[in-house]
């Protein structure tokens, strides 16, 4: 027998299939150790076959199998091939997507403990051996117990009974359960008529259905019903959410509903926990894979339902190689398994909505909240007038009044702004100098708690200079407001209010998110201040006021999607207000109150927003009417990067000349941020009429091999900086 093996080295030169001799027990999907070059490498068996075209004297033998059960399923192997082809990346790289990193590096493995129990049959114990009698009684009562614990308690008696054969010791596998003990049962709701018909529409519809439901319309309950139905049919399910670690309520709900059938994969888990969750899915002990983007690769077989919640979320496109689209992978899996794929959002992306409108996807609309709760009223506040009235703080008069009212009624408030730190930047009022990062071409942000300047791109910290480094002037000022400054101002305005701040400076890892959100949910605080983290799908019943401090921030982002993003953000944040019986309100502060995006958002008019936006995209030939493709060239040595850029540009120019009718735009330039983490950044920016030229663009880039320079392709990148 022979095995076709891909060696797990992500270097395109070795992205070739090698034949090795193997035994009968070798199967596709297994990880194996093979002799490679002068050493030993791990490889993946892609296929097992009877004969090989390689001369017998050249064929080496597989050294050993790394797993009993093939780590990769048939479906994983097929998908890995498709992704490698589509994005022109080595197969070794795409295969890795399907394994927990911990497995590849071999740093964790299954954990076992030794346990003892009474042996079968009669093993009389002398009535004088008091300890042995006690041990026997203990084991009769408890069944089995960890050997280490028994040794502590019964000492020599254990050894004696093991020696005599009265007690036997066995190895047991243990699972590291990340959420042990955090479960409280949550009953399933009886579906409303709208929810019921949504469930039926998904089941009787085509492969993909979009559920467009306002915030609080009960989408989660629909997903859970669909997933439960798939399990009942003996199938498995995949449930993708943007940031599960940010939504402990969702976690709790899932554990309460599905118990150990649910395996939750996310970045907050320890290596061992992640490995065990993955293993439970692979071995079929858990049948629902829940997690962020990467859970789309979960090793479940016989999939009966795939759900992508908050489908518009930017986290669904990968920002490192391979830059796959989660939706595309999910759709492939749905087609492979013959199951349904559900996309859900209160603010679907313009592209998805168009595909639904055009009939490519099914469309279900839920326009009312559960129990016909009203949507919170949104007030647009013109901040220019506030400035004119001499109010230079981040809070309008009306926001202060509503906040006071909210607090005195004993309710909770969420304040959102899109910038962390104390101020946006530090500026010299004498010469205009702006403090910038030495490694990145970006302005630094002042952080008052650590009294330092931080780079938000690379994390570097700098001391706050006592005077302007450029002119020596003493008039260094803070420009713009961040979460720290807002929190400090709030503390002055409402000394008795309990305030929590949540942004990447205050939270780290699973514990951090949980702690802050739990404190807020347990009403240990009155006001939560934060960046977009607070916009995610939280369900806090006592929140009746949401303040959006700077709605304009994201509007002026140099990106064709900035309007869409702003609409989504405002709608999502506003949706946190008034979710229970008390009615909610939203104060939306802006310097641009006539802006159509904000006006549509304030009225919850998605259709109006969509009609306006899609007309604009059509008129300007932007996605979904065109595709933006950016080839990035980055490297620490500027001359090498420029050299590589030239090569890329030449290759692409040739394509451009040949197929100019497929190009709407074609240019090379510095990336908007010229340097990040010491890497110079250049780009070729293209706008294409469709996908036809894509394959060739990838092919051109795959050919460029420059030492120390990274070349990669981005399709409709969500961040053009
Ligand atoms: P969405 O995901 O659409 O924003 P959720 O699924 O969070 O909405 O539901 C909003 C609220 O309504 C939650 O508190 C949820 O428990 C409740 N809910 C959902 N379905 C029902 C139902 N059928 N009956 C009663 N309450 C429900
Ligand atoms: Zn930096």
Number of helices: 21
Return the CATH class of the largest domain. Answer: Alpha Beta
**How many extended strands?**
31
Q: What's the CATH topology name of the largest domain? A: Rossmann fold
Strand pairing plus helix content: what structural class? Answer: alpha/beta
Shape: globular
Could you give the distance between the termini? Answer: 52 Å
What is the makeup of the main sheet? 7 strands, parallel
Strand order of the largest sheet: 12-13-11-14-15-10-16
Bound molecules: adenosine-5'-diphosphate, zinc ion
Number of domain modules: 5
Question: Can you walk me through this structure?
Answer:
The structure is a single chain. The strands form seven sheets. A seven-stranded parallel sheet has the order 12-13-11-14-15-10-16, sandwiched between helices. Strands 5-2-1-4-3-6 form a six-stranded mixed sheet. It is α/β, with parallel strands linked by helices and 721 residues long. It is globular, with a radius of gyration of 29 Å. The chain has five domains: 2-104, 3-Layer(aba) Sandwich (GIY-YIG endonuclease), CATH 3.40.1440; 111-174, Arc Repressor Mutant, subunit A, CATH 1.10.10; 193-371, Rossmann fold (3-Layer(aba) Sandwich), CATH 3.40.50.300; 374-423 and 480-617, Rossmann fold; 627-715, 2-Layer Sandwich (Alpha-Beta Plaits), CATH 3.30.70. It is 32% helix and 24% strand. Adenosine-5'-diphosphate binds at residues 189-192, 195, 213, 215-221, 370, 539. Residues 437, 439-440, 455, 457-458, 460 line the site of zinc ion.
């Amino acid at each position: 027998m022979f095995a076709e093996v891909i060696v797990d080295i992500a270097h395109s030169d070795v992205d070739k299939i090698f034949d090795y001799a193997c035994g009968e027990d070798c199967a596709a999907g297994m990880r194996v150790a093979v002799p490679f070059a002068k050493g030993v490498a791990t490889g993946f068996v892609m296929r097992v076959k009877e004969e090989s075209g390689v001369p017998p004297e050249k064929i080496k033998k597989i050294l050993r199998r790394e797993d009993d059960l093939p780590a990769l399923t048939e479906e994983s192997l097929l998908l890995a091939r498709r992704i490698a082809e589509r994005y022109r990346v080595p197969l070794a790289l795409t295969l890795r997507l399907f394994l927990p990193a911990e497995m590849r590096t071999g740093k964790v493995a299954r954990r076992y403990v030794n346990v003892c129990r009474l042996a079968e049959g009669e093993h009389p114990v002398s009535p004088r051996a008091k300890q042995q009698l006690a041990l026997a009684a203990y084991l009769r009562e408890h069944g089995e117990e960890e050997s280490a614990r028994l040794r502590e308690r019964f000492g020599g008696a254990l050894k004696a009974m093991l020696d005599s054969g009265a007690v036997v010791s066995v190895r047991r596998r243990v699972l590291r359960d990340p959420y042990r003990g955090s479960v409280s049962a949550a009953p399933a709701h009886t579906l409303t008529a709208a929810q019921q018909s949504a469930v039926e529409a998904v089941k009787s519809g085509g492969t993909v259905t979009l559920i467009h439901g306002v915030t609080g319309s009960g989408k989660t309950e629909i997903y859970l019903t669909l997933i439960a139905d798939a399990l009942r049919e003996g199938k498995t399910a995949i449930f993708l959410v943007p940031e599960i670690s940010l939504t402990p309520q969702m976690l709790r709900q899932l554990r309460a509903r599905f118990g150990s059938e649910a395996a939750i994969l996310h970045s907050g888990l320890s290596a061992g926990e992640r490995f065990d969750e993955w293993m439970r899915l692979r071995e079929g002990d858990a049948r629902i894979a829940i997690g962020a983007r990467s859970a789309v690769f979960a090793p479940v077989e016989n999939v009966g339902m795939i759900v992508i919640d908050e489908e518009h979320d930017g986290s669904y496109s990968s920002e490192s190689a391979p830059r796959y689209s989660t939706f595309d992978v999910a759709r492939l899996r749905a087609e492979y398994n013959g199951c349904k794929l559900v996309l859900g959002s209160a603010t679907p992306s313009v592209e998805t909505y168009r595909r639904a409108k055009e009939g490519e996807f099914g469309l279900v609309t839920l326009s009312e909240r559960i129990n016909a709760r009203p949507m919170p009223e949104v007030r647009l506040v013109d901040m220019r007038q506030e400035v004119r009235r001499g109010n230079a703080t981040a809070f309008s008069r009306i926001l202060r009044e509503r906040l006071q009212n909210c607090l005195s009624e004993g309710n909770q408030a969420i304040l959102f702004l899109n910038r962390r730190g104390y101020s946006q930047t530090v500026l010299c009022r004498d010469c205009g100098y702006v403090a910038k990062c030495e490694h990145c071409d970006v302005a630094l942000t002042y952080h008052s708690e650590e009294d330092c300047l931080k780079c938000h791109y690379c994390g570097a910290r700098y001391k706050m200079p006592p005077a302007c480094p450029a002119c020596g002037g003493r008039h260094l000022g803070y420009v713009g407001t961040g979460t720290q400054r807002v929190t400090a101002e709030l503390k002055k305005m409402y000394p008795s209010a309990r305030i929590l701040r949540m942004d990447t400076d205050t939270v780290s890892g699973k514990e951090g998110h949980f702690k802050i959100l739990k404190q807020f949910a347990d009403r240990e605080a009155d006001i939560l201040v934060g960046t977009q983290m607070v916009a995610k799908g939280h369900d806090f019943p006592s929140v009746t006021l949401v303040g959006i401090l700077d709605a304009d921030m994201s509007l002026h982002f140099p990106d064709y999607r900035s309007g869409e993003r702003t609409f989504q953000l405002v709608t999502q944040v506003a949706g946190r207000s008034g979710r229970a019986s008390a009615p909610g309100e939203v104060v939306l502060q802006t310097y641009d109150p006539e802006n159509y995006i904000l006006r549509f958002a304030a009225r919850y008019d998605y259709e109006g927003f969509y009609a306006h936006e899609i007309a604009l995209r059509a008129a300007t030939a932007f996605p979904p009417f065109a595709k933006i493709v950016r080839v990035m060239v980055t490297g620490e040595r500027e001359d090498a990067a420029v050299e590589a850029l030239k090569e890329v540009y030449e290759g692409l120019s040739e394509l451009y000349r040949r197929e100019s009718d497929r190009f709407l735009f074609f240019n090379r330039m510095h990336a908007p941020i010229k340097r990040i983490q010491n890497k110079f950044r250049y780009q070729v920016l293209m706008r294409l009429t469709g996908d036809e030229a894509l394959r060739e663009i990838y092919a051109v880039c795959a050919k460029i091999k420059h030492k120390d320079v990274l070349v990669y392709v981005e399709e409709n990148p969500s961040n053009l900086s």
